[in-house]
Specification:
The protein is of the alpha+beta class and 112 residues long. 18% of the residues lie in helices and 45% in strands.
Length: 112
C-alpha cells in the first residue's frame, strides 16, 4: 500500500474540493454528474481526489441544499497511486467541511 493511501486511511478533516467548491456545484455533482471532489486538508498542500459516486451508499436525506444545512454522506471509488480505494466522507453543507477516510478495496470494486 502506498504511503499516502496509508495516511489517508485514518479519519481526518476534509472539505469539498475541485475547481468550484460551492454548495451549488456540490449539489450538481451529487445529483447530476455523479462525481465529487473531496480534499484531504492535512497533507502538504492538500490532496484533492475526484470520486466516482456509489449512488447506493451516498446519502443525501439529512441535507437541505436550499437552506445550506445538514450533512451529506458520500462514498465512491478511485485509484490512488495504484491502490484501489473507497473514499468515505461526511460533509456539513453549512461549511463544506467534514471528515473522511480511504479504505482499500478490491480492484474490481474500484473499477466500477
Amino acid at each position: 500500500m502506498d504511503e499516502l493511501t496509508q495516511r489517508l486511511s485514518d479519519a481526518q478533516p476534509v472539505e469539498v474540493g475541485g475547481p468550484k467548491p460551492t454548495l451549488e456545484e456540490l449539489h450538481t455533482r451529487l445529483t447530476d454528474i455523479g462525481t465529487v471532489f473531496v480534499k484531504f486538508t492535512e497533507t502538504r498542500g492538500g490532496t484533492d481526489l475526484g470520486i466516482r459516486l456509489d449512488q447506493d451508499a451516498t446519502e443525501l436525506g439529512a441535507a437541505d441544499f436550499g437552506q445550506g444545512t445538514g450533512t451529506v454522506h458520500v462514498e465512491g471509488t478511485l485509484i490512488l497511486n495504484d491502490d484501489p480505494v473507497r473514499c468515505i466522507a461526511d460533509i456539513d453543507l453549512a461549511t463544506l467541511k467534514g471528515t473522511g477516510r480511504l479504505v482499500v478495496v478490491e480492484m474490481s470494486e474500484a473499477a466500477g
